[in-house]
């Protein structure tokens, strides 16, 4: 970190302690709706992707100007950080994938690998298993792996159903594949994949699914009708929490805590739920739409669960510091 970054970090931390939450707004993409934002694994950077197909990379505590802007010949459709936060994979609508090496201290970003699809199938999802292997899901319902060091591309999975999202478990023991109405888990060891488990099947489409980083068998889903369902694989444990949610994920350090973005009618709120607490009502209100011009689209934790970033329809990504020990436990009526 340079001196400016250190001072910004100290100021942000001090304000967080006093106010229990502190807002930094990242404004860009020519006011296009920001469909997703994510912290780097070390929380020093934030990526924002807008529906205009552009991707911006910011320093976490500097919202004045982005570090880098990434643009492809076609729309950017997926991205993923490597665990070391130094590599970023960017996938595009024309099947093009770039592996970019990031060096924020030198304000440098360079493409070190380019991976193309022979028939230009769109990239639907990206996920790193470690710092040298990245997995790529395409719109033809195939998943391939790519080793950045050897430049070898290899087949991982083919499906007859549309693949929306792929995610690796911590340690790379399981590949989670979210499809239109079901989730599949492929378990593997050093000899390859050996088991295949269907986690859930529903007539209601799955809008989004995220998997616990602390429990390989736990999943939170947002269904097409906005219902949140928490499931534990291999058991009959299933909790239906709320309706009209648009995004949900577990805290990275506590799978009993869930972050929810809810935007329906008059309700525009980001909040946290403690499973089993007060009938799963909102436990901590992060923002109830105050000073937010657009509607919330998504919300994500950083690596230690102490920061949240949410995206909106008016081209803003908003970051809060979350200190549960200081933040008042107030409830809102989610309609």
- The fraction of residues in strands falls at over 45%
Percent of residues in helices: under 10%
Q: State the separation between the terminal residues, measured CA to CA.
A: 44 Å
Summing up helix and strand content along with how strands pair, one would put the structural category as mainly beta
- Total strands: 28
| Total individual domains | 2
How confident overall, as mean pLDDT?
84
Overview features:
4-stranded antiparallel β-sheet, globular, Methylamine Dehydrogenase, Chain H, disordered C terminus, 53% strand, 2 domains, mainly beta, 335 residues
Please explain how this structure is put together.
The structure is a single chain. This protein has 335 residues and is mostly beta strands. The protein has two domains: 1-64 and 205-335, no CATH class; 72-201, Methylamine Dehydrogenase, Chain H (7 Propeller), CATH 2.130.10. Helix content is 5%, strand content 53%. It is built from one helix and 28 strands. A four-stranded antiparallel sheet has the order 1-28-27-26, with no helix packed on it. A hairpin with a 3-residue loop joins strand 27 (307-312) and strand 28. The chain starts with a helix and ends in a 14-residue tail after the last strand. The model is unreliable at 1-20 and 326-335 (pLDDT under 50).
